[in-house]
Inverse folding.
Protein backbone atom coordinates (compact mmCIF):
# COMPACT_ATOMS: atom_id res chain seq x y z
CA UNK A 1 0.00 0.00 0.00
CA UNK A 2 1.20 3.51 -0.81
CA UNK A 3 2.61 5.37 2.18
CA UNK A 4 3.20 8.95 3.30
CA UNK A 5 6.29 10.36 1.62
CA UNK A 6 5.85 8.34 -1.58
CA UNK A 7 5.23 9.91 -5.00
CA UNK A 8 1.91 9.09 -6.64
CA UNK A 9 2.11 6.29 -9.20
CA UNK A 10 2.29 7.10 -12.88
CA UNK A 11 -1.28 6.61 -14.07
CA UNK A 12 -3.91 8.16 -16.29
CA UNK A 13 -7.39 8.87 -14.99
CA UNK A 14 -10.34 9.92 -17.14
CA UNK A 15 -12.53 12.98 -16.68
CA UNK A 16 -15.76 13.76 -18.48
CA UNK A 17 -15.98 17.33 -19.73
CA UNK A 18 -19.40 18.91 -20.31
CA UNK A 19 -18.06 21.78 -22.37
CA UNK A 20 -15.23 22.29 -24.78
CA UNK A 21 -12.44 24.58 -23.67
CA UNK A 22 -9.07 24.86 -21.98
CA UNK A 23 -7.66 22.27 -24.38
CA UNK A 24 -10.35 19.73 -23.47
CA UNK A 25 -12.88 18.28 -25.82
CA UNK A 26 -16.41 17.33 -24.80
CA UNK A 27 -16.46 13.80 -23.44
CA UNK A 28 -13.76 11.77 -21.69
CA UNK A 29 -10.34 13.38 -21.42
CA UNK A 30 -7.18 11.80 -20.02
CA UNK A 31 -5.69 13.23 -16.84
CA UNK A 32 -2.01 12.38 -16.33
CA UNK A 33 -1.72 12.08 -12.54
CA UNK A 34 1.89 13.34 -12.39
CA UNK A 35 1.34 16.32 -14.66
CA UNK A 36 -1.97 17.28 -13.01
CA UNK A 37 -0.56 17.13 -9.48
CA UNK A 38 2.87 18.68 -10.13
CA UNK A 39 3.38 21.86 -8.11
CA UNK A 40 -0.09 21.64 -6.56
CA UNK A 41 -1.70 20.60 -3.31
CA UNK A 42 -4.44 18.09 -4.06
CA UNK A 43 -7.07 16.65 -1.72
CA UNK A 44 -7.85 13.20 -3.11
CA UNK A 45 -10.61 10.99 -1.87
CA UNK A 46 -11.56 7.65 -3.33
CA UNK A 47 -14.54 5.42 -2.88
CA UNK A 48 -15.93 2.08 -4.03
CA UNK A 49 -18.47 3.33 -6.55
CA UNK A 50 -20.44 6.17 -8.06
CA UNK A 51 -24.06 6.46 -6.98
CA UNK A 52 -23.54 4.10 -4.02
CA UNK A 53 -25.31 5.05 -0.76
CA UNK A 54 -22.50 6.27 1.55
CA UNK A 55 -20.57 7.78 -1.34
CA UNK A 56 -23.53 9.80 -2.60
CA UNK A 57 -25.07 10.72 0.75
CA UNK A 58 -21.94 11.57 2.74
CA UNK A 59 -18.57 11.34 1.04
CA UNK A 60 -18.97 13.55 -2.05
CA UNK A 61 -21.36 16.06 -0.40
CA UNK A 62 -18.85 16.59 2.42
CA UNK A 63 -16.11 17.61 0.03
CA UNK A 64 -18.44 19.82 -2.01
CA UNK A 65 -19.51 21.57 1.23
CA UNK A 66 -15.90 22.01 2.44
CA UNK A 67 -14.54 23.22 -0.92
CA UNK A 68 -14.04 26.84 0.15
CA UNK A 69 -12.45 25.90 3.48
CA UNK A 70 -10.08 23.44 1.79
CA UNK A 71 -9.05 26.13 -0.70
CA UNK A 72 -8.37 28.56 2.18
CA UNK A 73 -6.21 25.85 3.78
CA UNK A 74 -4.03 25.75 0.67
CA UNK A 75 -5.64 22.98 -1.37
CA UNK A 76 -5.55 23.78 -5.08
CA UNK A 77 -7.88 21.01 -6.27
CA UNK A 78 -10.13 18.28 -4.88
CA UNK A 79 -10.26 14.98 -6.75
CA UNK A 80 -12.80 12.21 -6.31
CA UNK A 81 -11.61 8.84 -7.68
CA UNK A 82 -13.71 5.79 -8.34
CA UNK A 83 -13.39 2.62 -10.39
CA UNK A 84 -16.03 3.77 -12.85
CA UNK A 85 -15.79 5.07 -16.40
CA UNK A 86 -15.69 8.77 -17.20
CA UNK A 87 -19.30 8.78 -18.44
CA UNK A 88 -20.59 7.48 -15.11
CA UNK A 89 -18.38 9.93 -13.21
CA UNK A 90 -19.70 12.77 -15.41
CA UNK A 91 -23.31 11.81 -14.68
CA UNK A 92 -22.53 11.54 -10.98
CA UNK A 93 -20.83 14.95 -11.06
CA UNK A 94 -24.04 16.47 -12.46
CA UNK A 95 -26.12 14.67 -9.83
CA UNK A 96 -23.86 15.81 -6.97
CA UNK A 97 -23.38 19.36 -8.35
CA UNK A 98 -19.58 19.15 -8.12
CA UNK A 99 -18.81 21.51 -11.02
CA UNK A 100 -15.99 23.88 -10.13
CA UNK A 101 -15.51 22.21 -6.74
CA UNK A 102 -14.58 18.54 -7.10
CA UNK A 103 -12.99 16.89 -10.14
CA UNK A 104 -14.73 13.54 -10.65
CA UNK A 105 -12.08 11.22 -12.11
CA UNK A 106 -12.68 7.72 -13.38
CA UNK A 107 -10.18 4.93 -12.75
CA UNK A 108 -12.09 2.62 -15.09
CA UNK A 109 -9.65 -0.30 -15.11
CA UNK A 110 -8.55 0.24 -11.49
CA UNK A 111 -5.00 0.99 -12.65
CA UNK A 112 -4.48 3.76 -10.09
CA UNK A 113 -6.13 1.72 -7.32
CA UNK A 114 -3.87 -1.26 -8.12
CA UNK A 115 -0.74 0.91 -8.33
CA UNK A 116 -1.42 2.41 -4.90
CA UNK A 117 -2.33 -0.97 -3.38
CA UNK A 118 -5.68 0.47 -2.31
CA UNK A 119 -8.03 -1.99 -3.98
CA UNK A 120 -11.16 -3.53 -2.54
CA UNK A 121 -12.50 -6.83 -3.90
CA UNK A 122 -16.28 -6.57 -4.07
CA UNK A 123 -16.71 -9.52 -6.44
CA UNK A 124 -19.01 -11.26 -3.95
CA UNK A 125 -21.34 -8.25 -4.20
CA UNK A 126 -21.26 -8.23 -8.00
CA UNK A 127 -19.05 -5.13 -8.23
CA UNK A 128 -15.65 -6.67 -9.03
CA UNK A 129 -12.37 -5.00 -8.09
CA UNK A 130 -12.90 -1.48 -6.75
CA UNK A 131 -11.03 1.22 -4.88
CA UNK A 132 -10.92 1.17 -1.13
CA UNK A 133 -12.42 4.19 0.62
CA UNK A 134 -9.64 6.60 1.58
CA UNK A 135 -8.45 10.18 1.44
CA UNK A 136 -4.98 11.59 0.93
CA UNK A 137 -3.37 14.97 0.88
CA UNK A 138 -0.82 15.31 -1.91
CA UNK A 139 1.76 18.08 -2.33
CA UNK A 140 3.70 18.26 -5.59
CA UNK A 141 2.75 14.65 -6.43
CA UNK A 142 3.91 13.33 -3.03
CA UNK A 143 1.58 11.85 -0.38
CA UNK A 144 1.73 13.89 2.85
CA UNK A 145 -1.32 12.39 4.61
CA UNK A 146 -3.19 9.12 4.05
CA UNK A 147 -6.44 7.99 5.70
CA UNK A 148 -7.60 4.50 4.77
CA UNK A 149 -10.97 3.25 5.96
CA UNK A 150 -11.56 -0.17 7.46
CA UNK A 151 -14.08 -2.48 5.76
CA UNK A 152 -17.52 -0.89 5.61
CA UNK A 153 -16.38 2.19 7.55
CA UNK A 154 -16.65 5.93 6.92
CA UNK A 155 -14.69 7.49 9.77
CA UNK A 156 -11.33 8.91 8.56
CA UNK A 157 -11.64 9.72 4.85
CA UNK A 158 -14.19 12.51 5.29
CA UNK A 159 -13.64 16.14 4.33
CA UNK A 160 -13.31 17.33 7.95
CA UNK A 161 -10.38 14.98 8.60
CA UNK A 162 -8.54 16.04 5.46
CA UNK A 163 -9.29 19.71 6.14
CA UNK A 164 -7.69 19.40 9.60
CA UNK A 165 -4.63 17.80 7.99
CA UNK A 166 -4.43 20.54 5.34
CA UNK A 167 -4.53 23.20 8.07
CA UNK A 168 -2.07 21.27 10.25
Amino acid sequence: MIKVGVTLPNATLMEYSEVEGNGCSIGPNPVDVHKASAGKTIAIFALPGAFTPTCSAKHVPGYVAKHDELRKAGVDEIWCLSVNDAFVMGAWARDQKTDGKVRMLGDGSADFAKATGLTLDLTARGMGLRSNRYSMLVKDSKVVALNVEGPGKFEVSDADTLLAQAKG
